[in-house]
Amino acid sequence: MKILIKNVILNGKTVDIYVNGGKIEDIGTELKKEADKLINGAGKVALPSFINGHTHAAMTLFRGYADDMPLKKWLEEKIWVLERKLTEEDVYWGAKLACLEMIKNGITVFNDMYWHWEATARATYEMGLRGFISAVFIDMFDKKKAEQQVELNLKLFDLSKKYSPNVTFTLGPHAIYSVSKESLIWANEFSRKNGILIHMHVSETEEEVKFAMEKYGMRPVEFLDSLEMISEKFIGCHGCWLDENECEILGKKGGRIVHMPVSNMKLTVGRVVPHSLFSKYGVTYCLGTDGCASNNHLDMIETMKFASLLAKFSTGDPTILPAKEVFQLATKKAAHIFNLGEWDLNVGSYADIILVDMERPEFVPNFDLFSDMVYATNGSCVDTVICMGNVIMENRVVPGEEEILRNVKKVAKSLIERE
Amino acid sequence: MKILIKNVILNGKTVDIYVNGGKIEDIGTELKKEADKLINGAGKVALPSFINGHTHAAMTLFRGYADDMPLKKWLEEKIWVLERKLTEEDVYWGAKLACLEMIKNGITVFNDMYWHWEATARATYEMGLRGFISAVFIDMFDKKKAEQQVELNLKLFDLSKKYSPNVTFTLGPHAIYSVSKESLIWANEFSRKNGILIHMHVSETEEEVKFAMEKYGMRPVEFLDSLEMISEKFIGCHGCWLDENECEILGKKGGRIVHMPVSNMKLTVGRVVPHSLFSKYGVTYCLGTDGCASNNHLDMIETMKFASLLAKFSTGDPTILPAKEVFQLATKKAAHIFNLGEWDLNVGSYADIILVDMERPEFVPNFDLFSDMVYATNGSCVDTVICMGNVIMENRVVPGEEEILRNVKKVAKSLIERE
């Protein structure tokens, strides 16, 4: 698709942006180009789209079903009860809703881990997003289950080509307390051989650290490092309870962390990622929403505000995670983690672009665009979304929205009612 | 104005709501009523509007001008420098923008403290909102200044009748570290004599507690209680550093607190209001956004999410401030503080109503309306706003919006440039 965006504000200047073949081909004033799609950018700012570093897309189905509960009770009595009933069709519609919601909030890339892999892949492909999608790999230290999971992942890896270029297959070993050492070794070898990212929960709770110390005599990242798993292919999610030595390992080996401030606060995991240790040891990290059961909104703009304010409050330092830095965690830094290039809007960059409507009260006076994006607005400021060079939302309209809402309502109702 | 809202969802049922003379006159199905204004409520939920318990409306002018700075430096080098230059006209436009922004986010009542009282009163009146408006009363322990402030307040109290019924005059002694004991005594007597609310900053920072201990040998609320100021007319804002004895005093005497979670996190005041002591001693409290310089968005829905999640995170208790309770802090509990009745949508209630658009991704599946309102959405879900029986926003359109945005841009630019 060839797209010409006229008179949009980019880095403080009014320009035209020309998109061709999924990339930005030209930026200038009064560009004369042949285009399949002409967009009037007047009154709008062009920014790189957001990257959601960790979610469970189809958990939109559980939004608001159970909140304000202790984690164990919430999982055992509510979430797992529903998850056991999930069909491929349920997950497909849940993932469609998640894609719709992410598009509405200016997200074009997400990193997912869930059941019924292909349902999420299909939804992502149809909605025109970029998904790094993993199947939840849990063996509970059972050899038979481990074999089944390996077999499934081999099958899905082959299948994933069908959903290219939207879907990138990733490995999803759930966590050290739910996956055996042998399976982790297998995942690591498969990842190295095929250049695949590993997506895993790490150090979310104090219990996890205790588990690692008791079972392996090491903290979670120390244990994973003993298996040579910590590399630039390793994406550890949460990381609330990382200590200094673990941060040093992550920094040295290039392991990545995804920080979920909203989910961490809602589920009261007790600690915040150690931002200052990340700085000290050069740990690369980005932000995520987590799934809708523990957030309950897939809005990276909201997540940026929570990340910055939680960092400030928990450290007592009002200068930590300033607006521009937190904006980069949600865009450029995340792109680096997912090998998506510089993620700036320059000639040659990927055309993953959002146009933000500046004619809103919260963008007035607009002394600082990054401050306004992080502290003053929310996902509803996004007017137009372009992903991989295709327009997937214009004037806040996403094709097929009504059908998705209607079907998810049906699916969620049937999920509760069925045995 | 006579308003007939057809087929709207109220407490889970589809009904018609008839508004007449600022109150809800009838609720039923297929109501046949004469109306000046007919509203199609299909696909929308009717809820009581939000009450913003503490703000400095015109500080929208400073949004994004200075963030991510230590409090003292931020005030002395940035905020106070601009505030010294403010004219009545500046404050008028800043307050107009704040009113516009609050309407867009479903707020119809706000409690304000700022300079150039009449500018804010005029803006509030013109925009059709309810404002409890106080002039900042600061004497810095200077007798002459105190006399001027008393004189000004007497004048404004008389003037306030001009802006009735939208504007209610309140007293705004800034804080114990900026107002002399004599002036506090005057404010308290004037409040009792005329039934006026007192709006004051209390226990925002540890420094304030230290100041009170050093100057008066008592903590802030103990000192105010020694002046007999703690009553149902007293609204103390922030309250982060309140201790158990202060909460007991507030509970016994009926003193109110307004909690500003976003501002407290952004300015790193170091502590959260003691929710459990508030429960123990029955302290009545509500929520506020604070001004746009320290938030930077006048969105009570966002504030509800921050309040609940900050309470959970800081106490380690995921069950604290559940969705429905925090929704009531932003509506019903606040209405009690400002003497606005039950603030439910019943026959006879004030017609301060918002209609929320349910055809949005974040309201699907909609297992629990309060969970979705608090955790899954933001102010942009509000479609229609009725204040005191008048429609002030419909389909997200507020009359005069463009003019306000245009003028605030001009005013803010000139404020920076002028000597």
Describe this structure in words.
Two copies of one chain form a homodimer. With 419 residues, chain A is an alpha/beta fold. Chain A has two domains: 3-48 and 345-397, Urease, subunit C, domain 1; 50-337, TIM Barrel (Alpha-Beta Barrel). Chain A is built from 15 helices and 16 strands. Chain A has helices at residues 71-83, 88-104, 117-127, 143-159, 181-194, 206-216, 220-226, 244-253, 261-266, 275-281, 300-315, 323-329, 332-337, 369-376, 401-417; strands spanning 3-10, 13-20, 23-28, 37-40, 44-48, 50-55, 107-114, 130-137, 167-173, 198-202, 234-238, 256-259, 285-287, 353-357, 382-387, 390-393. In chain A, the strands form four sheets. Chain A has a four-stranded mixed β-sheet with strand order 3-2-1-4, with no helix packed on it. A four-stranded antiparallel β-sheet of chain A has the order 5-14-15-16, with no helix packed on it. Chain A has a four-stranded parallel β-sheet with strand order 6-7-8-9. In chain A, a hairpin with a 2-residue loop joins strand 1 and strand 2. In chain A, helix 2 (88-104) crosses helix 15 (401-417), helix 7 runs parallel beside helix 8 and helix 11 (300-315) crosses helix 12. The longest helix of chain A has 17 residues, at 88-104. The radius of gyration of chain A is 21 Å and the shape is globular. The mean pLDDT of chain A is 97. The interface between A and B is large, with 67 and 66 residues.
